[in-house]
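F.,

This is the one I mentioned.
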């Protein structure tokens, strides 16, 4: 968990139950990442949804070390991204990681996300400053305002 902010927290059964319960009756999403062969729970993937701005921010953690580096993170990320890109209420899908988290950078770049911005020297790893990279990809929501202005331009054209 070198690059996750969870590294600063100790979890108990109760804190995990509270975490899971916090998603109930909310717009946010949580999935367990499990190995199909054994049903072993190796990690979680979450989506925080900002309904006002129609943003969906994906977070992922493969906590089981033996589950890392085997393609599961990429598979989970791409599956959730594919689902979010079908949602007509989502304008933009985002994700972020530290610059040195090369696996996360690879996952976000290989699925077509592009760099939105860099927050320079934002976090500390072993007291060394780390850039935070923010990636995004468009969702399929488009502004009805745009539709209205296109329609009204068209009708102005027609009326001329
Ligand atoms: C980061 C994390 C989600 C990546 O998932 P993963 O299952 O380990 O990664 P994958 O096996 O799917 O690999 C994805 C890509 O990264 C590459 N990669 C994997 N581990 C890597 C490493 N240590 N260094 C460089 N590249 C790496 C893979 O080769 C693959 O690239 P490719 O498509 O070119 O082959 C997972 O390791 C994890 O949860 N780590 C701990 C917590 C964390 O960092 N969470 C993210 C916080 S933003």
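My design for it:
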């Amino acid at each position: 968990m070198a690059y996750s902010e969870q590294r600063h927290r100790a979890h108990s059964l109760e804190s995990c139950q509270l975490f899971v319960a916090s998603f109930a009756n909310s717009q946010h999403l949580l999935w367990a990442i499990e190995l199909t062969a054994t049903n072993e729970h190796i990690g979680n993937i979450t989506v925080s949804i900002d309904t006002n701005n129609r943003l969906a921010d994906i977070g992922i953690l493969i906590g089981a070390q033996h589950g890392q580096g085997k393609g599961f993170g990429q598979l989970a990320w791409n599956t959730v991204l594919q689902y979010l890109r079908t949602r007509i209420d989502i304008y933009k899908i985002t994700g972020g990681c530290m610059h040195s988290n090369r696996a996360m950078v690879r996952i976000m770049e290989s699925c077509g996300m592009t760099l939105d911005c860099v927050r320079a020297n934002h976090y500390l790893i072993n007291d060394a400053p780390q850039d935070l990279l923010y990636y995004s990809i468009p969702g399929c929501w488009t502004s009805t305002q745009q539709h209205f202005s296109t329609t009204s331009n068209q009708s102005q054209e027609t009326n001329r």
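The radius of gyration is 19 Å.

Talk soon.
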